[in-house]
Amino acid sequence: MYSLQPDNLDAIRHHWQHRPLYIPTAFADFVDPLEPDEVAGVALEEAASSRVVIQESGQWRAEPGPIEDFSRFGDQGWQLLVQAVNHFVPAAAELAYAFRFLPDWRFDDLMVSFAVPGGGVGPHIDNYDVFIIQGQGRRRWQVGDRGRHRPRPGHQTMALVEDFDAIIDVEMAPGDLLYIPPGYPHCGQTLAPSLSYSVGFRAPSQQELIGQLADHLQDQDLGNTRFVSSTEPTQPQRISLSHQQGMAKLINQLMADPDTLGPMLGTLLSQNRFELDLQPPQPPLTLSQLQHALQHGAHLQRVGGLKCLQLEGDDSSLFLDGQRWALPGSLGNAATDLARYHRLEGHRLTPLLACPKAADELLQWVNQGYWYLDDDDRD
């Protein structure tokens, strides 16, 4: 189990979304959740997203995965990056859980990279918060200040920026942690063969919110109120200020309606950018088989990367993978357990399994691979 000390958490909360922060030995006696050859193996998974970035003479280029033969890249100047490794490797998911002092809806994925000396992706700026944990090996990280940073010539497809003056310049060892808020340029250079873990947190943009709102209104056949006015402009070519304000009011009314906004946000924020590693049981389980397994010591384990969210004020609804599951109000505690805990003992599911409708719906989620039975006794 990976954990951060309370003083480290306080420092992170103080810097969150404001300033970069370097914490040496944030994870004492850090043990890598996987080895370099396992990272390469995850990159070959059909559902995995990966790439190799090669640096040659101050220029960077990327090759999309999957890649089976790395020998052609040599032993200098390249880095393998694999997204959402927490979807495939439970030990990597455990590392991501150390950051659950932040809300689950913000969590994007845990990216793992393996790099040889000289490897890196070049100076760049991210539009999300990232925590970089150093695994085996050593890497030098430089972070610049926010400001106007010009795109790096010749790298249009990689969104790199020109070199910057560093406000943080550190050589990271196993267990060290670097936090970088959005908008700060940064660059990593590998000094010895290294594993690095990037825990990313993302918030929706205005475009994403408005787009999701439009989709939600269409799907639910909502938002059909039309604009009406009591006065018209004297010049026919004009869209009057009162008409502009009236139409804006229509939009604001939708956004202020909790029955519209809440389900829309639950649907949007429970979606995953990267494909889940769903492995439905074959053949599908019956309800009696599920109940029997839970009664005899099996646990219900959530698949890696699945977001299971609740709206404050509506404990009986769950949002997962962009879908809503409305449970009877009496099952609010069971719904909260499903959302809060990644692994559940059978007794926590007893109220839910006692409700035929809820039990059937849970069985459907299990047979789709969102949860699975785990007989491993970790307690």
From TrEMBL:
Superkingdom, natural source: Bacteria
Domain JmjC: 91-218
Cofactor(s) needed by this chain: Fe(2+)
Annotated GO CC locations: ribosome
SMART domains documented for this protein: JmjC (SM00558)
MF terms in GO: 2-oxoglutarate-dependent dioxygenase activity; metal ion binding
InterPro entries from the UniProt entry: JmjC_dom, NO66-like, ROXA-like_wH
Keyword line: Dioxygenase, Iron, Metal-binding, Oxidoreductase, Ribonucleoprotein, Ribosomal protein
Pfam families, per database record: JmjC_2, WHD_ROXA
Coiled coil: none
PANTHER family in the cross-refs: MINA53 MYC INDUCED NUCLEAR ANTIGEN (PTHR13096), RIBOSOMAL OXYGENASE 1 (PTHR13096:SF8)
Protein name according to UniProt: 50S ribosomal protein L16 3-hydroxylase
Species, as recorded: Ferrimonas sediminum
